[in-house]
Amino acid sequence: MGYGKKIYEEARGQLELSRRKAEELAASQTEAFYQKCPEARKVKEEMGANAARAAKAVLHGGNVRAEIEKLRDRGLALQAEYESLLARHGYTPGDLQPRYACPLCQDTGVVDGRMCACLKQLQRAMAYESLSMNAPLEKSTFESFSLDYYRDDPRALHQMQNVLEACQRYAANFRSDSPSLLFKGATGLGKTHLSLAIAGKVLEKGYGVLYGSAQTFAVALERERFDRPDPDTPTDANSQLMSCDLLILDDLGTEFPSQYVNAALYHVVNSRLLAAKPTLISTNLNMQELENRYSDRFASRLAGFYGMLEFIGHDVRIEKRRRPRPQ
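Given the sequence above, the corresponding structure tokens read:
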């Protein structure tokens, strides 16, 4: 589940904070109980000492069974006495225990050496929130994608119906080894809208999605190139681009060109292909323009390994201003 190092660390930090607060509250409540009932503190201390004596008995050998049984009986008696004192002062044993957000992992994020479902869910929620801050995720759904603006052009309507259905199938059947997609077409035909619709559904399925414009990623890669002291050390931006389950690279060709950016984008595209990790790229450029701007190797990767969806029609944003959405 590739949500990226930053989201993972933030999620772990939230869990750790939740764990610490739960334990601090339990400790505070326990101390308040001991203030009301000093006898309970002594009983609790005796319970700890009794447990330590049991451990020593096992280590020292001798008539272990008889000693252990004796200490066990003493421990049960102390436990009963402690619970009686709790009840006398209006408490239950659970009142003084930490109330973790996730009882399964006790807010550690790990169960039996594996990532707990709570940590997965927290990363998913944070990824959705992060993506929504940078893009209108809630507005860009399959349900809100209208084909009505294409009805004046039967050819465009037929093509865009096929595109919509292909995107819906892709999202419904998405797996970590799904094929990569290339959205081609002029501005304002719904490439970004359907990219985000796919992103939303893929996130709901529990996969990690990284979305951004080519310009955003180019700036991040350039900045980290000059800021990092060791050129051989992987950067966080590059790590996220490589580790996410689905990378959505929007508006390829609108970024400020440079040799480094072109090489970095090729590296990302090629490396993800080699790792069988899906990438969704949208662009206003045709294949010849992609080859001229980047390289024939770059264009051949897209032509040979990406499923292509052609967006056609009139600029929907202009159509929306010209006339209201048909009912």
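The radius of gyration is 30 Å. Try to locate this feature in the token string yourself.
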